[in-house]
Give the backbone structure.
Amino acid sequence: MEAKKSEHLQVEKNSRLYFLIGLTLLLALTHVALEWKTYHEPIAFDPEIDVLRPIDELPPVVIEKLPPPPKLESVPELKVFEDDEKITETVIESEEANQDYEIPDVPDFDFEEPVVEESISFIVVEDAPIFPGCEDAQDKRACFQEQMLKHVKRVFNYPETAQEMGLEGRVSVLFTIQKDGSIGDVRMRGPHQLLEEEANRIISKLPKMTPGKQRGKAVKVPFSIPIAFKLQ
């Protein structure tokens, strides 16, 4: 004989309804738990208790007996002894000039003239050398340098052999303006001998100048200038 299930006792029939009811209760409990707030009970204020009220009862005063002061010992008597040695007083003379004092004659001294060096730098020398045409210039040093650059540009000639070989660079030239205004002691340093020879030729074309002077005496004045060789 087979057992038959009652339609009223079938749990699967209302499982969806039970699930929704349980979910609703769970959400409600969660909302209540999150929104639950607790407050501390305020402390009741008693107006009879005054915190700032002065204390009526003071602690008892304890008087301690201090030990008696120590007895003072007898103070020794001071005796003054006379000095046996006699002190000699030093007389301080006045430093003011005395009109009665005669000033002795001072012998004449021979002062040697300072030695002036033979060679002084172009920047340091008192009277710089004067390039022809700069006699009336206010700044003779600036005029000298300007005329030097014009002379290099006017006389400059790029050697054809150096151009064919692709030689270029800078030649540093150092020369000295002698005491008579002539050019001497020419020294140079460059990347190639052909460029150095052209730089030497340019310096050899310089005119005679007015020599530089130091304390009124003519001196040698070295001067340096770079000459650039650059292919276009």
